[in-house]
Amino acid sequence: MSIDLAKNLYAKMPDVFAKARKKFGRGLTLSEKVLVSHADDFDSQVWERGKAMLALRPDRVAMQDATAQMAMLQFMQANKAQAAVPSTIHCDHLIRAEMGSEKDLLRAVDENAEVYNFLASAAKKYGIGFWKPGAGIIHQVVLENYAFPGSLIIGTDSHTPNGGGLGGLAIGVGGADAGEVMAGLPWEVLHPKLIGIHLTGKLSGWASPKDVILYLCGLLTVKGGTNKIVEYFGPGADTISATGKGTICNMGAELGATTSVFPFDQKMVAYLNITDRGDLANLAIANKSLLVPDPEVAQSPEKYYDQIVEIDLSKLEPHVVGPHTPDLARPISKMAAEAKEKGYPVQLKAALIGSCTNSSYEDISRSAHIAQQGLKAGLKAKASFLVSPGSERIYNTMKRDGFLETFEQLGGTVLSNSCGPCIGQWKRADGVKGKADSIVSSFNRNFPGRNDGINETLSFLASPEVVTAYAITGDLGFDPVNQLLKGADGKEFKFLPPVGEELPAKGFAKGEEGFVAPAASGKGLTVEVPPTSERLQLLQPFPRWDGKDFEKLPLLIKTKGKTTTDHISPAGPWLKFRGHLDRISDNMFLGANNAFFPEPGKGTDVLTGETGLTMAQIARRYKAKGIGSIVVGDENYGEGSSREHAAMSPRFLNVLVVITKSFARIHETNLKKQGILALTFADPKDYEKIEQQDRISVTGLSSLAPGKPVQVTIHKADGKSLTIQANHSITEQQIAWFKAGSALNALN
Ligand code: MIC
Ligand code: SF4
To answer: Which residue among 210, 450, 504, 648 is the one 20 to 30 A from 700 at the CA level?
Structure first.
């Protein structure tokens, strides 16, 4: 990375901070420092938390292969010669985990050739860095190479906030946002509120950075962070390694937070130095006061943060969360009793460590320490034990320092440096559909079907060291931290608390870094999209709004309970169609619970009465008849990933309106970008009034205005009707997107 980016940013910070202090009449938090220094125009910007839309200029864009396809297809529609900001593509999501690192990678290169060629050729042409398959998982590679204190990075992946471990704001977005920023437009986001997490004490024993965020997930829930930045501060923050901070920020996505961030400190200096960025470390040291909150913030944090949480790290116990949601948390000492009480299957079928969230040197060395203790007692992993390293550096360093061998001796398999089982690209040998089994991982998501494609699987999350201990005992009904277990000789022993190194004493070992620089000029270069491809399809603009109100739309689905983007647009086997909107749309709502059908993903064609059809089948029928439809959703609708397919497929299949009790941030924006009307019930109880046979009208659309509720009329099957109100957060600019049919149409 060029250090000039940081130099220029730091050079302009003092002036804009002075203006901001004057305007706000107080000192600045770290989040505010990053926001104001990236404002498109500080003076004309309205700064009102929770209300104003911010127009920001990110320093860079990162994309991963599964979302980059749509991001690039959309960017290409803007007809620009080059990406306007430094950008990279990372090939990590499409590698299936089955046979171990080498074979899996070879197969991926073969079976994804079309997609990789498309991405590589587009990257080359448009001035975008390309990280080849096997180079590593986007967030780990960004942390090792691109994130820096004070930076603003956007990434087409919800766990982009991992970069907060190096003191910048790194934010997950949909591909349309990335495409627009690469096309030279500012990036818009609702001015987030701030949650301050005051850290005191120091982690010790089994407690790890992961436990900070698992604990917070339980406390704040999956929607507690929506449209908020989580800013950590206090003396405890300085005691956590930069990679540990990365873990905490990464999984802030599970709170629904816009992002999370830690102030610049010595741990970041150490990480920058060991990742060959000593010059950047020195520059940041020289500018330290710009990269931490103003001193008065720590003195009276309640004046600066909208909400404050206190955590004494010295008292934190290791936690386990799950199944099915990351906010079902408890200390590990309570897990066994709860498993018994709730009837969770206690035999652990698989234990998985690593991923973008938890494969730092610290994580791996602490886990290896637990594995060594197991081996010493003559034990092997009882559960299938899989390791997903985050990057080439991590993998090679693990190998050099003997950790790989330790894990393999324990019976583990080291997979390629990619997402693999974390995104359902895992062929779980012993999994049986319809059967509830338990698995545990150090990943960040545990929605039904997420890892092995089996909805019944109960997936729990914990720190990598705890997961390694569980791998050895293979038993959720047993507390590996506090209880005695039996060695091969029958003698009882207790695991000693894990000990590891934050950073490798010998530095990182490097393998093939896997970076391909773009061409100096893209002129004359072509982007490879085979016309007959099953996996890639150039986009056709969505139709413009015809100026008419939406009258008597049939209800496509009323989702019940948790509706994450994994429910709306499942990954796993569908990942391969991420570049082909028509093909992938067949997966629409396959994981969602329909209030009017007993089986997920299915429902009734209310025009013909035929039932048991998939949502895509029903929507395609309506579309063929020229009819649009409406989707009704529950709380925190669209929680989870950034995949805009969860918005594009409904749009492609003629869903015109989505009305919910509440939305998750990235998905709400994705819907608006694609031209879908995203509404929320003014009275959440109105959700109950929607029935399968209703026809729903949304009227007054020609006078759609920011802050003005919209009228929704529910026409009942018996001829009666009732009118309710719906709210929205649509801005002037977003009204233009709606009218144009999509944000992209509005651009052209
Ligand atoms: C995820 O963790 O859910 C993913 C897969 O990385 C997604 C992106 C995607 O669906 O491609 C995310 O987090 O945004
Ligand atoms: Fe990949 Fe999982 Fe990280 Fe998403 S959360 S980027 S799927 S490793």
So the answer is: 648
- pLDDT on residue 340: 95
Q: Is 93 in the pocket of ligand 1 (CB under 6 A)?
A: yes
Pocket of ligand 2 (CB under 6 A): 93, 137-138, 157, 159, 355-356, 419, 422-423, 443-444
Instruction: Give first-to-last CA distance, the chain, whole Å.
Output: 32
Which H, E and C letters describe 198-231, residue by residue?
Answer: EEECCCCCCCCHHHHHHHHHHHHCCCCCECEEEE
Q: How many angstroms is it from 635 CA to the middle of ligand 1?
A: 20
Sheet of 87-90: strand order equals 169-172, 152-155, 60-64, 87-90, 129-131, 515-516
pLDDT the model gives residue 1: 67
Does the Cβ of 642 fall within 6 Å of ligand 1?
yes
Secondary structure class of 658 (helix, strand, coil): strand
CA distance 717 to 223: 35
- Name the closest ligand to CA 565: 1
What is 328-341 written as a DSSP string? -EEEGGGHHHHHHH
Q: Which pLDDT does position 102 carry in this prediction?
A: 86
Among protein residues, the one with the nearest Cα to ligand 1's atom 6 is 157
> What does the alpha-carbon distance between residue 561 and residue 220 come to, in Å, rounded to a whole number?
18
- Pocket residue to mutate for ligand 1, from 93, 352, 419, most atoms within 8 A of Cβ: 93
Other beta carbons within 10 angstroms of residue 60's beta carbon come to: 25
The predicted structure's pLDDT at residue 511 = 80
- Among 102, 177, 172, which Cα is nearest to 138's? 172
Q: What's residue 101's pLDDT? A: 83
- Around 369, how many Cα atoms within 13 Å sit in the side-chain half-sphere? 17
Comparing CA positions, the residue from 227, 252, 326 lying closest to residue 666 is 227
- Tell me which residue has tokens 């818009």: 188
Ligand 1 within 6 A of CB of 567? no
Buried b (16+ CB within 10 A) or exposed e, 298-309: beebeebbeeeb
Cα 598 to averaged position of ligand 2 atoms, centre (Å): 30
Say if CB 353 and CB 516 are below 8 A apart: no
Any ligand 1 atom below 6 A from CB of 160 = no
pLDDT at 676: 98
For 228-265, the three-class secondary structure string (H helix, E strand, C coil) is EEEEEECCCHHHCCHHHHHHHHHHHHHHCECEEECCCC
Whole-angstrom distance, CA of residue 656 vs CA of residue 554: 11
Please say whether the beta carbons of 331 and 220 come within 8 A. Answer: no
How many CB atoms within 10 Å of residue 605? Answer: 17
Sheet holding 307-312, edge to edge: 259-261, 228-233, 193-200, 307-312
C-beta of residue 175 within 8 angstroms of C-beta of residue 71: yes
- Which are the contacts of 563, defined by CB distance < 8 A and separation ≥ 6? 592, 593, 633, 634, 637, 638, 639
Question: What are the catalytic residues?
Answer: 92-93, 157, 445, 641, 643
H or E element that contains 557: strand 550-558
Ligand nearest to the CA of 136: 2
Cα–Cα distance measured from residue 158 to residue 179, given in angstroms and rounded to the nearest whole number: 16
Pairwise CA distance, residues 401 & 364, whole Å: 10
Q: Please report, rounded to a whole number, the percentage of residues in the chain having pLDDT higher than 90.
A: 93
Identity of the amino acid at 449: G
| Alpha-carbon 522 to chain mean position | 31
Neighbours of 735 (CB within 10 A): 18
The DSSP-derived string for 491-506 is: -EE-PPPP---SS-TT
Look at phi and psi of residue 619 and say left if phi exceeds 0, alpha if psi is from -120 to 50, else beta: alpha
The residues, ordered by sequence, that sit 6+ positions from 309 with a Cβ below 8 Å of its Cβ are 195, 196, 197, 198, 216, 219, 220
Q: Identify the nearest ligand to the CA of 356 by its number.
A: 2
Q: For the segment 383-392, what is each residue's pLDDT rounded down to a tens digit?
A: 999 999 999 9
Report which protein residue has its CA nearest ligand 1's atom 9: 643
